[in-house]
Specification:
This protein is mainly beta. The protein has three domains: 115 residues, Orthogonal Bundle (Muramoyl-pentapeptide Carboxypeptidase, domain 1); 86 residues, Elongation Factor Tu (Ef-tu), domain 3 (Beta Barrel), CATH 2.40.30; 56 residues, conserved putative lor/sdh protein from methanococcus maripaludis s2 fold, CATH 2.40.420.20. 9% of the residues lie in helices and 36% in strands. Helix 1 crosses helix 2. The longest helix is centred in the first third of the chain and has 13 residues. 15% of the residues are buried.
């Protein structure tokens, strides 16, 4: 993890510092200039204690003498020449701390303008579920989810946002099949982990996400496999004393796909009764 004010990488033994801001570097900054890039520089210098709020207004978009003085202090701490100006190649602005995932450059190799040096992400752990657009009406921000990790452990999370663009991916054909694969449209659903440490140290990994779309309390539930299909409804077979059994028609409610259960109501059903599940 590289954070605000720290060296992100070096070019010709000259450190490039990470600063926080949403405006990328597109010019050198010096005294007398104004703009949103200057404002985020002023905010960074105050946040890094290279200047106080009394000396430098962090919301100001003007590069004045106070900015130059604070910048010289930052440059001194990094071992850079204290110029009081910020050349375009001396800093990288990112919205937050960077978690380095992959180093693209080779130590000692020449670097040309625009050459990738590294790839990184924020340090915030999140899960992404790829959901069929037809199921999106059942998914809302704030919905609770259960996540199965690659080690078969489970953890929980909350839906934070839902994408607005459907992307297509090809479903792979089975072994020995012929013909083209059919594209499948999905929309990304973004999830905040309740316990980020549960994800371990992996940068990326495939997961299974179960999203809770509805909740009911104090209901009867049976395994989905216990349902018996009737001509126009469903029933369950209830096991009674001394090996007796009888069929009870039921009405279905919510399905719990994660646990393989379904809500049922029916005359004479009670908690604790045993129902017959086929041995498949």
């Amino acid at each position: 993890m590289v954070r605000q004010g720290q060296r992100l990488y070096s070019v010709t033994d000259s450190p490039v510092v990470l600063l926080y801001g949403s405006v990328p570097v597109y010019r050198s900054l010096s005294e007398g200039m104004t703009g949103p890039d200057v404002q985020q520089l002023n905010s960074d210098l105050v946040a890094l204690a290279d200047a106080s709020k009394a000396d430098l207004d962090p919301s100001s978009d003007y590069f004045g003498s106070a900015t130059a003085t604070a910048l010289e202090k930052l440059q001194s701490g990094l071992g850079l020449t204290q110029t009081g100006t910020l050349p375009a190649g001396q800093a990288v602005f990112e919205p937050a701390a960077v978690r380095v995932g992959n180093v693209r450059a080779t130590l000692g190799a020449p670097v040309n303008p625009g050459s990738p040096v590294l790839t990184g992400t924020s340090g915030t752990r999140q899960a992404v579920a790829q959901v069929n657009p037809a199921n999106l009406p059942d998914v809302t921000a704030g919905a609770h989810v259960t996540i199965t990790l690659p080690n078969d452990q489970t953890t929980t999370g909350v839906v934070t946002s839902i994408g607005t663009t459907a992307s297509s991916s090809s479903s792979g054909s089975g072994s020995g099949s012929s013909g083209s694969s059919a594209p499948t449209a999905t929309v990304n659903v973004y999830i905040r982990l309740d316990h980020p440490a549960a994800a371990g140290t992996l940068d990326q990994a495939p997961i299974t996400v179960n999203i809770t779309t509805s909740t009911v309390n104090n209901v009867l539930a049976v395994p989905v496999g216990a349902l018996v299909a009737e001509p126009s409804s469903y029933a369950v077979e209830v096991a009674g004393p001394r090996g007796t059994r009888h069929i009870v028609p039921v009405s279905l409610g919510l399905f719990d796909d994660a646990e393989g259960l379904v809500q049922v109501t029916g005359q004479g059903l009670a908690a604790g009764q045993q129902v017959v599940v086929p041995d498949l």
